[in-house]
Amino acid sequence: MNAQSTLAGEIRQNIVTDRWVIYTPERANRPGQVRERRTRAAYLPDHDAGCPFCAGNEEMLPSIVFELAADSDGLWHTRIVPNKYPVLTSETDVAGTNRGIHLVTTNYGRHEIIIESPFHNRDLPVMAHEEIEAVVETYARRHSELYGMDESIQSVLIFRNHGEQAGTSIRHPHSQVVASGIVPEFVARRERIAEGYFQQNHRCILCDVVDLEQMDRARVIYENASFLLFVPFAAEVPFELWIAPTRHSPDFGLISRLEKEHFALALQDALQILHDRLDDPDYNCLIHSYSRQHSIVPYLHWYLQIRPHLIPPSGFEIGSGMQVNSSLPEHDAEVLRQEV
Amino acid sequence: MNAQSTLAGEIRQNIVTDRWVIYTPERANRPGQVRERRTRAAYLPDHDAGCPFCAGNEEMLPSIVFELAADSDGLWHTRIVPNKYPVLTSETDVAGTNRGIHLVTTNYGRHEIIIESPFHNRDLPVMAHEEIEAVVETYARRHSELYGMDESIQSVLIFRNHGEQAGTSIRHPHSQVVASGIVPEFVARRERIAEGYFQQNHRCILCDVVDLEQMDRARVIYENASFLLFVPFAAEVPFELWIAPTRHSPDFGLISRLEKEHFALALQDALQILHDRLDDPDYNCLIHSYSRQHSIVPYLHWYLQIRPHLIPPSGFEIGSGMQVNSSLPEHDAEVLRQEV
């Protein structure tokens, strides 16, 4: 029995995001649907004279906000620098006045780059253990620091764009942090949904999702002592992955020392599996943590999402607000489990 | 004075969709941000032996649902055929049962292709007057027919994907129609917003937008007796365009004979301007009409949206639900007006 064909033609709701996804496995057979592969990072040099993120090219950086030193060889592990082209900035010159019927507000916030390695080609899947732990340490530290240093910051988003289709033009391994003076729509929405679920069921929505996936196994790729790696029940795109802590926790910044180790392992394994199985696809990777006022509530639960870019969005998705996914989550999980 | 720099750093709300857009004009200077150009349609042959949409290749089509005959030479103007890879289908085999905490529903509906010309390379910008009017006639006719023939249809979406980045793999000029058994999220949202605005202001929200744009002129590209072509105040992407009827009308299917002529002109001009000024960009084009139960209300108003794909979305947009646009609407309008 072929799971792809027997389950064809269903629409699933992602209960965490409230989004509906249409499954059309037969569309995977359409011609020319998968994007061209990018040049693999492994073929890049370890140093690029024109890259501002490479060690030794510090004069190309506006400044260095933070540096995590390596233990042994004296080189740095990670660096944080200001984004030269910020989406939000504390140096804003716009008054929050409206124009006619239109609402306008200011873009207060901070936008920084986390350089993940001194080496141009040392991407997360090929990092040594201590290197990827340094990246996770930098994520967690900056997540807490940004809330701590500025009371106007309402929400912190850490994300990683890998490849041109995912919106990046710089190959050197890096992530980004955006700290916002407002709670962005998608964060507010997940908070609303989770709160409503808790009021009805007296349970955390993502704790329930994790429990269900652990019992069902159909979409689980991998599990360690602190994290579950799975394809969500209503994945929006082929091979979408979530990494969720099995312990209830709304705030990524409160990740424990042991959880950091386990998270580094899970993140590296997830990206390694995608790299090997899908030939280094472009992807966006995001940590969905919660806004300032919700860091200790019983109903929110942070998670990491990896969203590969294998098929471009179409007019139907833009017009309907629903995603069309040509690949069933159970099928994707089966394919990816073969790499574990 | 440079409008791009003086207005940098603002967040605008699109009052029709309730979405917030961050403007960062200085990001337009980032390296490698514009996608590679596609091969222009003008260099394609007028007939492709392997293309199922070309005249003479009928044996490659599953069936022909409808054909609009040309007046003079006996050839057809447009054809409607079933989509071989439908996102929705009336032959569904899924029961609408839920699985554990997860909601599942069926994907009832129809998904058709509108072949816009017998010729492989006769794209909308280069069509003769009567040819583009035939396309608009086919849109309007099918929009009404689909509601009429099936009482379960709640919503009809007509859209056009142009180029690979917009999700199409077939170059032959075509549009698509999806008729859904449900009201998709984005349609329901616009209906909710427009109803709320009407209750507060006793006015149609899009009538107010059209009035304001006509007075302000800063974002207007072009206007004819029935339609306004403009960059919306909170455009989500660079060079987004809207074409709105100046007469209040919720239902695209009720477009008058004269309006069809004027709409054909406005649509062709809009696509021509984009083609010439931006070197034939990939885009999605969508007609936002309203769901079955809302076709005669005083608060809804159909419009056409053209969304070019010049810059790929990034992790911040996916995680926040907010768009980042590196180009101000007033700037885009100024650039495009030079082609009129």
Protein model, in words:
The structure is a homodimer of 340-residue chains. With 340 residues, the first copy, chain A, is α+β, with helices and mostly antiparallel strands. Chain A has a single domain (15-25, 41-337), classed as 2-Layer Sandwich (HIT family, subunit A), CATH 3.30.428.10. In chain A, 27% of the residues lie in helices and 22% in strands. Chain A is built from 7 helices and 14 strands. Chain A has helices spanning 3-6, 129-149, 185-201, 205-216, 257-278, 315-320, 329-337, and strands at 10-14, 19-23, 66-69, 76-82, 104-106, 109-115, 155-162, 174-180, 220-223, 227-230, 241-245, 283-288, 303-308, 323-325. The first copy, chain A, has a 10-stranded antiparallel beta sheet with strand order 3-4-6-8-7-12-13-11-10-9, sandwiched between helices. In chain A, strand 9 (220-223) and strand 10 (227-230) form a beta hairpin. In chain A, helix 2 (129-149) crosses helix 5. The longest helix of chain A is centred in the last third of the chain and has 22 residues, at 257-278. The radius of gyration of chain A is 20 Å and the shape is globular. Chain A starts with a helix and ends with a helix. The relative contact order of chain A is 0.17. Strand 1 (10-14) of chain A pairs antiparallel with strand 5 of chain B.
